[in-house]
Amino acid sequence: MLNILFKRSTVNVAKKTTLPLRTFAVHTKFTKEHEWIKYDDETMEGQFGITQHAANELGDIVFVDLPFEGDTFAPGDAIGAVESVKTSAQIYTPVDVEILGNNQEIEATPELVNQSPMEDGWITKIKVTSLDNAKDLLSEEEYQKFLKTLE
Amino acid sequence: MFNRFVTRSTPKGVRFFSSTNLSRTALFDWHAAQGGKNVPFAGYELPVQYKAGLMKEHLHCRENSSLFDVSHMGQLRIHGKDRTEFIERITVLDTQTLKTGEGSLSLITNENGGIKDDTVITTNEDHIYMVVNAACKEKDIAHMNKVLDDEFSNKDVHLELIDDRALIAVQGPKTQGVLEQIFETSLKDQFFMNSTVLRIPKLDTEVIATRCGYTGEDGFEISVLNDKAADLADLLTSIKSSEGNSIVAPAGLGARDSLRLEAGLCLYGNEMNEDISPVEAILQWTITKRRKKEGGFIGHEGYMAKRKKGVVKEKRCCFVYEGRGAPAREGAEVVDNEGKTIGKVCSGGYGPSVGKNIGMAYVKNKYIKAGTEFQVKVRGRSYPVKVTRFPLTKPGYYRG
Questions:
Q1: Which end of chain A is more exposed for a tag (fewer CB within 10 A), N or C?
Q2: Is B142 helix (H, G, I), strand (E, B) or coil?
Q3: What pTM did the predictor assign?
Q4: Considering the domain boundaries, does residue A52 fall inside one?
């Protein structure tokens, strides 16, 4: 995320509550730019979104600029942008991805990203095409620690 | 040497500096206690929003009453018997249209007729009161001192920088009711753009209260002594509705910007600058027939030349998005329906009260008519917009 204007001390990232129904693992990884990706290691498919911290910093979100289905992006590419009343921030993928579709709900109800950034307010459906060039992916614990350093 | 023309209200200029070299206003601690999130703005550390957030703060102002700290703006007094001649030299103001205690928006012009600053000027019995933009105040004072030195050295004009007073804007439809409780007097006879000195009995202090603002709503700007400013803010937020809620809530710079944009009010640095004249900015309404004809203000010749047909190529217009999309903000490209560049956005964002993206742009003359359709570009995507007359919300200006 770019252009975050100021820091916020309270952080409330939703905990992953879904239990694995299958034998392979669903990974949730975070970036220092406050994005997250979730994917399972069999299909490599999952979702991409922004964290609660990012949503809080941006304030009231009014529009999400979404990528197109079929687009492919390399680590560090901007795949879209989140616009709030206050400011805008581009969102960057930390890994190679292909876009499988977007969250239609947030087109009509962008405030979902504020309300539930890790669940209902996910942004785009992705397939991780390679983890080879992944940059600085953090586990949830590492991300929480990183957030503490911003306070 | 120019300093001999400026006196300060306090012997030593009172400025509140932080460690980051940014100035602080008298309400700095008050903002912190209210959960304000500070940003640097025009050399000051000021809250961009409070806990409620920009959207709620904006809507609160349209429905209730909001408090804005605008102490960063420059407050000046012009004294001396030749002050009228001086103000008509440095601004386009027509003092003949103002009764004592009445104010007006006016423009400080440069030699070419460009806009040096916009300012609200009130004429009083023994002085002129003037509020200028924070980012321009140093420049304005230097400019005024130069004019005083070059043209008024044998005349009776004296400039005073008011630095012992904060400026608190209280805006919104419920403002009058709140302020009547604070001033303990009726305000029904004080109309839009009128300024009076009023007493706040509870604080044992006098303030300059001008019925004006920057939100499109009814409201007042209150010039209060620095050491009473936080008490006034507390007093304002202590007034409760019948449901027991504070009627006045603090609002930050973010809401101030979205409110003024919906109201179609220009912001210096965005819609106005030294290269833009009142002709391009569609601000010629600030210049009366007499001032156009008689001139006398700096840059009159340049301004009159720009009024000639075909000289000005681009003008300001206001637009509203036809659908959803990323809001085009300052600097975004404006294109016609064939994709050809026709101008640039100067202000833009989401309008919380209208629920749409809105903005202002400088575009080629033929595109400024209401109803004209063109597109604005954000990150390579084009969004259709329609030229619309602002304000978008019903103005609340109180005219009795």
A1: C
A2: helix
A3: 0.90
A4: yes
